[in-house]
Amino acid sequence: MSEVLLVVTLLALLKWVVEEGLHAGIASGLGEESFSKSAEKRLSAFSHFVRGGHALLYIAFLALVHSVTMNSKLHALEDLLYTPQALQDMSLFVMVDLLYVVYLCIHQSTYSRKWWRTLSRSLAPIMMFPTLFYIRLKLFYLLPGASFLGVTLGLMAIVALVTLVAPYILQALGVDRELLRELAVLLSLLLFFVVIVAGVLHPDSAVRGCDAAIQWQEVALLIGFIFGMGTLGYLLSLRIIPTIRTKFKKTA
């Protein structure tokens, strides 16, 4: 299970940097429209405000779980998570995170004239909080002789710094607006895939004692139905999705 959690942690960290870039004016705040210089400055200041709020949330979360992680055992946590029920709960959590990333990528700008839309597009990455908990707990075993408080403070500083400079890191790497959205969705899908595969491959999730003959006709009908509905959805998306995005642009 430790290998699965390490992969999930790595993907969650990469997705965290990409999502913070989505909130930045240099990556997504300006959208497809052209703004005046004063409007660009306001959007840039707003993106800094959003990332600053995220950094404060991460710091507060690490301060909150500091004492909890000191009294927790890594192996006990891994054994607790490596159960079919825990993996199902984790997959549901990752699915909610995936839906939010898709919602975030639909919009051209984090900022909106309606405060509740702005708030809904400014939430911190959901997967970052359990990831921070696991990283802090893991560091106890990687740095056995270090000060517990010093490690927590160092982790706070690193997380806050990366949160604030993430858009500039992505800009230096040449990641443009469209690629940023694609990376966010792809990393979320890959994270969801890893958790689902971990649940399917769990020994207690295997189906045993099934001697019934395979109904190949029903299997073929099911595959045909899935393929047909997928094709229909793709054809409808050619007309529906552009219309929805146009409406979102007008109301944002």
How does this model look, in words?
By secondary structure, the chain is mostly helical. The protein has ten helices and no strands. The chain has helices spanning 2-22, 25-29, 37-70, 74-81, 84-106, 115-120, 128-142, 148-172, 177-200, 216-251. Helix 1 packs across helix 8, helix 1 packs antiparallel against helix 9 and helix 3 packs across helix 7. It is flat and about 65 Å long. The termini are far apart.
Tell me the layout of helices and strands.
Elements: H1 2-22, H2 25-29, H3 37-70, H4 74-81, H5 84-106, H6 115-120, H7 128-142, H8 148-172, H9 177-200, H10 216-251
CA-based shape: flat
**What percent of the residues sit in helical stretches (DSSP H or I)?**
over 70%
Number of strands: 0
The residue ranges in which pLDDT falls below 50 over 5 or more consecutive positions are 25-35
Descriptive labels:
single chain, 252 residues, mainly alpha, 10 helices, 78% helix
Quick synopsis:
This protein has helices at 2-22, 25-29, 37-70, 74-81, 84-106, 115-120, 128-142, 148-172, 177-200, 216-251. The chain has 252 residues and is mostly helical.
